[in-house]
Amino acid sequence: MLVDLHEFWLTSKGAELGIKPHSGFAIVAVGGLGRGELLPYSDLDLILLHDDMPVERVSEVADGLWYPLWDANIPLDHSVRTVPQALQVAGDDVTAALGLLEARHIAGDEDLSSLLIGGVRQQWRNDIRNRFPDVVAHAQDRWRRAGDIAHRAEPDLKNGRGGLRDVQLLGALAIAQLTDGMASLRPDSPGAGPQVAYQRLLDIRTELHRTAGRPREQVRAQDADEIGAALRIGDRFDLARVISDSARTISYSIDVGLRTAGNALPRRGLAKLRRSPLRRPLDEGVVEHSGEIVLARNAIPSKDPGLILRVAAASARTGLPISASTLSRLADYAPELREPWPAEARSDLLVLLSSGHHMVDPIEALDRTGLWGRLLPEWGAVRDLPPRDAIHTWTVDRHLVETAAYASSMTTRVSRPDLLVLGALIHDLGKGRGADHSIVGAELAVQIGNRFGLWPQDVTILSDMVRHHLLLPQVATRRDLDDPATAEFVATTLGHNRVLLELLAALAEADSRATGPGVWGEWKASLIGELVRRSMRHIDGVPPAVPEPLTPEQLAIAAEGDFAVRLVRADGQHTYDVTMVAPDQPGLLSKMAGVLALGGLRSHKACAQSHDGKAINSFIVVPMFGSPPDAGLLRQQLIASVNGKIDVLARLDARERDSPIPTIASVSTLPGTMVSLGASAGSTDPDVDGAGHPKNAVPALFAVAPPRVTWLDAPEPDAAEGAVLLEVRSDDRIGLLSRVSSVLERNGADIRWAKVSTLGATVVDIFSLRLAEDTEEMRAALTAAIIAVCPPPQPKRDEEDGPQTPGGTGRSGVPIS
C-alpha cells in the first residue's frame, strides 16, 4: 500500500512538472521503493534522470520534486544525473552499483530509464570478474560491522550476516549470471527456503519500524515482545528463534551463492587453456572437485545410507565445503540409516565430531538441508532455541556443536573419546521440552545410544553423562571440598565409575568454554580439578588391559605355514577382518601395520599376539576407497617387507606427502561467518575461488587433541616377567600404528602383545612391553620419540574462551531483560 501511494504521488507530481513520456526526464526508484518493499519510516531513494537538459530546467524540476517531500518530513535520499553520470558512479562504487541494480522506472521517459537500467546491468555483467573481489570484501566488511544475526543480542536485520542485504546480494550475482539466485532448499528443510526466510525478516523489520516509530534495523529487547505478539509469533524467545532460523537459512544461501559465483567466474588468458579441475578421491564415494566436496561418479546415494556421514566427515577433515548439489542429491535419494547404525556410520560420525571447530560448517550445511534432522530427529526441539540466560553466547543447538568442538580437543585425556564427543553433542538435548533438561536428556540419550549401536554398558554411561553433566560444576562451586563427604557424594552418585568421572570432568570444561567468554577460568578449573582428584580416591581402580585369547581359527591359520594372510568381510558394508601370520621377530608389528596402510586400509582395531614362535596379529580394517587388495598381494608385500625388500616407513612417508587430502590447517574461518577463507577475500590467486575457498590446498597434518603417552603397571602374568604397559592416545594419521611400533622396536622394546582401537579420529593403543632398560630416562626417551611421530597439535584458537561474533555481545537472538 505504501508503494502504491508513493508511486501515485510521484507520477502525479511528475506529470505536473512535465516529467512525461519522451520529455527527457524520468523518475527512477532504488532501494525499498525500487524493490517494491517500502517500509514505514524508510528513506525514499530516488534518482531524477535527464537527457542532458539545460541546468536551469533541471534545477526547476528537481526543486519542484524534492521540496514537497521535504516539507512532508519524508526521509529522502536523492540524486540528479544523466545516464552516463549514473553509469560512472555505478562503475566506481560497489555500493552504488548494488543499489542501481534494483532500479525501477516510476514516471516520465521510460526509454531513458531503460537505458540506465539496462546499461547498469550490462556493465555489471561485463565487469563482474574484476569487481567480484570487491563485492566479497564489501559483504565481509558489512558482516564485521553488523555481526551475525543468528547469534547477536540485538540483530541488525538489514546489514547483518544472514540479513536482507545478503538476499539482495544474491540477486545481484544472479543478474551477473553467476548464480541462479538463492540456493534451492527442500520445502521440508528448516526455514523452508531462503525466500520464506527473507519474507519473515522483512515482516519483522516492518513491524520493528512501526513499533519504534522510526527507521530502525536492530531488534531491541524492549520491542521484542510487542513485535512477536503483533506478528503472532509469540514472546521474545519465539521471535528470537524465528530470526535465528531465518538468518541461518540465508547465511547458508549466501555461502553457497558466493562459492558458486566464484567458481563460475569467466577465465581469461592462459587460464582458458587449463584442463577441468581433477576429481580427487577423499573417501569411498566422496571426491573433491573445484574446492568442494562432491559425490564420486559411481556413488549411488539410494544404496549407500552411510554416504551422508562420509561426506560430512570428509568436509570436516579437509575444511572444504559440501557442494549444494551434493546436499540436494543426498536429501532427495539417501535412505534412512537402519537401526542400530552400522559401525562404519558410527565411526564416520565420530570422525566428524573429532574435527574441532571444523565440524561447524558441515553440520550447519546438513542442518539447513534437513539431513542432520534425519540423523538426529531429537534435534528439532533445540534447533535455533534461544538461551534463557544472557551468559550463553549461542542458540542451544549451536552450543551443543560448540561443546563437541571443544571436547574434541580433550579426547586424549579420557579413555573413551567416542563417548566424550557423543555426550558433548547431546548433553543439552533435553532443553525446550518443559521439564528438567538433564532428566529428559538422559532418557533421550538412551534411545540415541541404542540407535547409534552402542553397547548397553556404553548407553548407560552416555545417559549418565547427560543426567549428571552439571554435577561437578555445581558441587565444586557450592559445597565444601575439604569435607570428605563431598567427594564421597560424587563418587556414590556416579556409581564409583572412574570412566564416567573423567568423562564428566572433560565435559564440564568443554560445556563451560562453549557457553561464553569468561565462564571457564582458573578458579573454576582448580575447583573442579580438586573435586575430581578427591573423588577418584573413593573409586576403585579399573582392571588393567589384557590381550584377548587367540581363537581356534587364528591358530589354524598360523598352522598353515610361516606366512599367511586371511581377509574376510566383517559386519558392515566396507569393513574387513584381516589376520596376518609371520615368524615372530623384532619390527614385525610395524611392518604388518605398514603393509595394510600402504594397501589403503585404515585399521580400526588391532590385536598383536604370539604363539609357538609366530606372531598372530588380527586387524579390523576399512578401505579408503573401493575394494581391499587381494590377500595374496598383502602376503607378498608382507614377505618382501620382512626380507627388507620394501622400506614400509619410507613408502608411508611418501604416501602421506602425496596424499590428495587438503589440509584444514590451511583454512581459516572468519568469526561469525560461514565463509571459509584460504586467502584474503576476493583473492586473485588462481587456486582460490572468489569467495576465498582454497581449490587445491596443500596436504598437512595436525591433531585437534594433543598426543598423550602414559606408563602403567602390567597385570599378571606380564608383571612377573618384567613387562610394563604403555598407553598411547593420539589423533590418527596414515600408518600411525606402524610408526609407533617402529619407534618401540628400534629402541629395543619387545612388544609382547598390543591392543589397538580407533574411535573416530582418536586412537587408543596399549602395548605390553619388555624394555631393555626400564629406567626413567628410557621411558622419557620413548615418550618423546612416540610423540614425535604423532600428528602435532593444531595452533591455538585466537580466543581462548571461545569464538565471538564480530562486534557482538555474544548472545543469541533477542536477550531477556
From TrEMBL:
GO molecular function, one term: phosphoric diester hydrolase activity
Cited PROSITE patterns: ACT, HD
One of the Pfam families matching this protein, by short name: HD
Keywords: Hydrolase, Magnesium, Multifunctional enzyme, Nucleotidyltransferase, Repeat, Transferase
Cofactor(s) in the UniProt record: Mg(2+)
Annotated region (Disordered), positions in chain: 791-817
Catalytic activity: [protein-PII]-L-tyrosine + UTP = [protein-PII]-uridylyl-L-tyrosine + diphosphate; [protein-PII]-uridylyl-L-tyrosine + H2O = [protein-PII]-L-tyrosine + UMP + H(+)
InterPro entries associated with the record: ACT-like_dom_sf, ACT_dom, HD/PDEase_dom, HD_domain, NT_sf, PII_UdlTrfase/GS_AdlTrfase, UTase/UR
Regulation: Uridylyltransferase (UTase) activity is inhibited by glutamine, while glutamine activates uridylyl-removing (UR) activity.
Region (Uridylyltransferase) residue spans: 1-281
Segments forming domain HD: 396-497
Residue ranges the record marks as coiled coil: none
Protein task: Modifies, by uridylylation and deuridylylation, the PII regulatory proteins (GlnB and homologs), in response to the nitrogen status of the cell that GlnD senses through the glutamine level. Under low glutamine levels, catalyzes the conversion of the PII proteins and UTP to PII-UMP and PPi, while under higher glutamine levels, GlnD hydrolyzes PII-UMP to PII and UMP (deuridylylation). Thus, controls uridylylation state and activity of the PII proteins, and plays an important role in the regulation of nitrogen metabolism.
Record text about domains: Has four distinct domains: an N-terminal nucleotidyltransferase (NT) domain responsible for UTase activity, a central HD domain that encodes UR activity, and two C-terminal ACT domains that seem to have a role in glutamine sensing.
Family, per entry: Belongs to the GlnD family.
PANTHER family xrefs: BIFUNCTIONAL URIDYLYLTRANSFERASE/URIDYLYL-REMOVING ENZYME, BIFUNCTIONAL URIDYLYLTRANSFERASE_URIDYLYL-REMOVING ENZYME
Protein's UniProt name: Bifunctional uridylyltransferase/uridylyl-removing enzyme
